[in-house]
Amino acid sequence: MPHRRDLAVASADLFTGLLRRTHLSRPDQLADVVAEEAGAALDAEDVVLSLVNHEHTALVPVPRRDAPAREEQPVDGSMAGRSFAGTRVLSADAGPDRHGRPRRRLWVPLLDGTERLGVLELTVPVGAGGTDVPADEVAVWERYAHLVAMVTISKSAYGDVVEQVRRSRAMTVGSELIHAVLPPSTCATEGLVLSGVLEPAYDHGGDAYDYAVNADAVHLAIFDGMGHGLAAAGLTTFALGTYRAARRSGADLRRTYADVNEAVLQQFGGDRHVTAVLARFEPDSGRLTWISAGHPPPLLLRGSQVVKALRAKPAFPLGWPFPVDPDADLVVAEEVLQPGDAVLLYTDGLTEARRPHEDMLGIEGLAAFLTQEAAAGQSAPETLRRLRRAVLDRQQGVLRDDATALLVEWRRGSEQDVVPQTVL
Predict the structure, then answer these.
(1) In whole angstroms, what is the distance from residue 361 CA to residue 355 CA?
(2) Domain around 65
(3) How many CB atoms lie within 10 A of CB 87?
(4) How do residues 129-184 score in pLDDT, each as one tens digit?
(5) Structure pTM?
(6) Domain tally, the chain
(7) What is the pLDDT of residues 352-406, one digit of tens each?
(8) Which among 7, 354, 372, 413 would be 20 to 30 A from 401, CA to CA?
(9) Last residue of a domain, one of 123, 141, 164
(10) Taking a C-beta distance cutoff of 8 angstroms, is the pair 259, 252 a contact?
(11) Of 126, 142, 164, at which residue does a domain stop?
């Protein structure tokens, strides 16, 4: 291990080397570049770059050219999984190297901002007289993993290796369409955490979520297109694209609803429609406004309890064959949140989940789950990962309908839970 003065030089070499080599490298070469630069700069060995699969159940190693194949590791029940789920750098004894020097195995979360991508594993020397990796070197590895995550996202646009690693099986064309337009599943800023989930991972079509964190407000939306498969995916992506166009033009909720409704009606002739919740949240004041177009009511979580469902007079689903006067016909509901509140937007695929011969999960069951996870102090993305598993377990792994959720936390201090401890 280098002395502190040398660590700054080695760190500069580490970051410079990765940036220099990834300018012209192919996406499939990334894992090799990451490992080689870590070894050259700070003597890291046995470096493994793993990405979480789309189900968020396993961490899958990215193949390297000359390294032996590695087994995937479960998110639940492994050190890599603990690092991923808790967004924490973990370490364990790795035994001595060939010269008898002590070493530690590190698991470092891969974060693109606050989006959890996977884990970087590596073994590093501790140094003479040491028993653990010094905090300043751990911070270097955390920042290196952050850079690796950003490069991974950048490189994923130029090839298929990242998507191929993350897939446990083939994805339908409808799912390809939806995945191509979804925003990242987690976003956090000071005082705000957003996290979304969509299940099933490989064969959905009609559901989608969207958000935009802007200077004046946070825009939120959930969509559920009529039908299943490719037809539903095409309908939903059309509605989502029209929603973004209206939002980016500065339209308010009423005008946005009217624009999307008219576009879907004109394109599909009234034969197909999309249920939705379109919402706007103002973090400075806590004011939440929304239009419910045929969706179940959002749930309000205060502290560790779901205190109520946010019910509102529903509008027609988007594309319904009736004229709409946005100034007269639409009810824009309003709720002023308190610091520490959270709101869950969701589709009926969650509440309608059931085992054979059992009742549906329902709003009460969903509220009970949120209460349990809040009491346990789970982060927003981890809450939704666990919700995904709970719903699939309830359905014995096969959903009867798409299940989508978007969880918004405001001034809960939870943004601290989605970044590593080295940046706090």
Answers:
(1) 9
(2) 4-164
(3) 20
(4) 667 899 999 999 999 999 999 999 999 999 999 999 999 999 999 999 999 999 99
(5) 0.90
(6) 2
(7) 665 545 666 677 778 888 888 888 888 888 988 888 877 766 555 445 567 889 9
(8) 372
(9) 164
(10) no
(11) 164
